[in-house]
Design a protein that fits this description.
The chain is mainly alpha-helical and 87 residues long. The protein has helices spanning 3-20, 28-45, 49-57, 61-84.
Length: 87
C-alpha cells in the first residue's frame, strides 16, 4: 500500500470518528480538538488580513503569541505522529 493511500484511509477514518461522534477511542477528545482547531483556522483564514493585522497591531500581541505557540505544538505532535506511523 502506498503512503498516500494509507494517509487517505487514516484521514477518512478520523473524519468518520469525528463526524459520527463516536467515543470508542480513549482519546476521542484529541480528535474533537483537531476538528475544533480546523474549524477555527478555516474561519480565521476567511477574515480580511488587513483588518486582522490592524487589530493585532493595536495592543493584541497576545493573539500572535498564542498562534505561534499553538503552531509549534501542532507541528511537534503532527511530526511525531507521522514519524511513528511512518508517514
Amino acid at each position: 500500500m502506498k503512503k498516500s493511500e494509507l494517509q487517505k484511509i487514516i484521514r477518512k477514518e478520523v473524519e468518520n470518528v469525528i463526524s459520527e461522534g463516536h467515543s470508542e477511542y480513549q482519546n476521542y477528545m484529541f480528535f474533537q480538538n483537531l476538528k475544533t482547531i480546523r474549524r477555527m483556522v478555516d474561519k480565521m483564514m476567511q477574515l480580511d488580513p488587513s483588518q486582522v493585522d490592524a487589530l493585532l497591531s493595536s495592543g493584541h500581541g497576545w493573539a500572535v503569541d498564542h498562534i505561534s505557540t499553538s503552531a509549534d505544538d501542532i507541528t511537534e505532535v503532527g511530526g511525531w505522529l507521522c514519524n511513528e506511523l511512518s508517514m
